[in-house]
Write the C-alpha cells for this entry.
Amino acid sequence: MDLQDLVERLRKGEPRAIARALTLVENDQPEARELLSRVFRVFGGERSAKIVGLTGPPGVGKSTLVDVLAKLAREHDLDVAVLAVDPTSPFTGGALLGDRARMDSGAADPKIFIRSMATRGHVGGLSAAVFEALVLLEAAGKDFILVETVGAGQDEVEVAAAVDVTVVVLAPGLGDQIQASKAGLMEIADILVVNKADRDGADLVAEETHAHTDGKPVFKTVALDATGVDKLFTEIERTHGERRLMESWLLNCLHRAVREKIPADAWTAALERLNRRQTTPYQAAAALLESLKS
Amino acid sequence: MDLQDLVERLRKGEPRAIARALTLVENDQPEARELLSRVFRVFGGERSAKIVGLTGPPGVGKSTLVDVLAKLAREHDLDVAVLAVDPTSPFTGGALLGDRARMDSGAADPKIFIRSMATRGHVGGLSAAVFEALVLLEAAGKDFILVETVGAGQDEVEVAAAVDVTVVVLAPGLGDQIQASKAGLMEIADILVVNKADRDGADLVAEETHAHTDGKPVFKTVALDATGVDKLFTEIERTHGERRLMESWLLNCLHRAVREKIPADAWTAALERLNRRQTTPYQAAAALLESLKS
C-alpha cells in the first residue's frame, strides 16, 4: 500500500488502514513521519473528536468502564476509538489479552476501533506514539476517542495534558493511604469516578474525594452492570477541558529535533567534560544549545 | 540548614540530610539545581556505587526481593540505599505504605536508607528526579543502590538505561501471554529472575525466558525465605553493565534548557501556525531551533 493510498483509506475510516497507520507510528518507522505530515497538513487540528483520557490504579475496573462508555457512545451514533496504553504489557500481556477479549465483542461493528499500545521503538517515548495516534484517529473521522492509561507516571501525566477531558477512576478497598497520597493525581482530573460503587466504603471514598478536590464532580458507577455510566457519559459530553495535544506533540518533536541536531562529537566532548567534573549537566546543556548557533 | 551545610552532612551520609536533599530534588525546588551543581562539581561521576535497577510486573514479589538483597548487601558491609519508584502511588499509596513497613525493619541501621519517589512537581519528569537522586545517593557514600520500578513505560526504560545493572523479575502464573509479549522488556535486562520459584510452572517460565533472551542468565528465587538470592547477589556483584546516568541526565537537562530558551511569543506563534495547518510539528520544531540562532 503506498502512502497516499493509506492516507485516503485512513480518511475513510477503514479499520485496516487505521491499524496499519498506527503500527507505523508505534514502531516509529521512517514512513510514519511522512504519513503524519501529510495527514496533518490536510486534517490536523480539526478538533472534530472528543478525546477522553481515563486513568486509575489497577483493579478499579477501568477496562469495563471504557467498554460501557464505548457502547453508550455507539448508541449515540458516534464513531468510537479506544486506545489502551499499557506500559506493563511487555510483562503481563495485559494489552494483548484485552485486545482479544474486546475485539470479539466489537468485531462486527466497524465504528468501534480498539487498539492497545505498549512501549516499542518510538524514540519520542510512549506518549509521542499516543499523540500521533490521536492525530490519526481524529483524521480517520472518529468522534469519541477513549485513551485508557494506568498509574500516574510521566506518560500518564503527559497524556492527561494532551486530551480534552481526563477521568480519574477510583474504587473502594484500595487501602487507607489513598486519601493522603492521591493529591498529585487529583490535579489532572476533570471528572472523578468511584467505580464498584455497590461495595462497602464507596460513599466514603466519594465524599473524601469530593472534599479533597475542592468540589470536582465525583460520579459513582458500577461498570459491570452499567449503573451510573449514562450520567458519567453526559458529564463527559458537556465537559470542555483544555486540549493541549498540539503543545505536547510540538514539545516532543522539539526534544527529538534538538538531540538530532547536536553532532556526535559535541555530545561526546560534553560527556567527557562531565565525567572530569569540569562542568555540570546544567552548564553542559546550555553550552550544547549555544553551540547550535554557530 | 544552609546549602553548604547540607552538602557536608550529605557527604557524611547523614540520613536526615539525604532525605532533605531528595525532597528538594523530588519537588524540583529552586535550591535543588544549586545543590546538585555543588555536589556534582565535587563528587560527581565517582562511580563508587553499584546502581542496580530492578523491575517487573505487580505481584511478582519485587519489594520482598529488594529487601532481601538489601540485607545481603549489609552483611557484606556495604552502605545501602533503596529507591522505590512508584508511579501508581498517587493512587494506591503503595510507596508510602512500603516506606513505613520497611522503615520499621531498617530504622535501627543508618546504613540502609530507604525512600520512595512518586511523580511530584519535577518539570523533567519522574526519571529526572531519579537521575538526580542517584547522583546524591552516590555522593552520600552509598555503595549499593537498588532502584525498584514497576512496568516498562518510558520512565522505567529511561531508568534502566541509566543504571549499572538491570534485573527483570518475573514469576509463574502471570498468564499465557507473557512469553509472546515480553520481548520489549528482555532488551533492557542484564539479569532475569523467576521469583516464587517454589510454585508450579516456575521451571517452564525460566526455560522459556532463557530461550527468548539468547541465553541471558535466569535465576530462580523464593524471596520470602531468601532461597537463591545469594546467588543472584553474587551475579549482580560481578555484572558490569553500561551505566548511562550522565547521558540520561544530560539529555534531560537539554530538553529542559531548550524549552526554557524559547521565548513565549515564538512558542505561541508556532502553535498558531500549527492550528492553521501552515506547518507540521516537525517543521515547527526545526524552525524553533533555528530561531534560537539569531
Notes: The beta strands of chain B are 50-56, 80-85, 112-117, 144-150, 165-170, 191-194, 218-220.
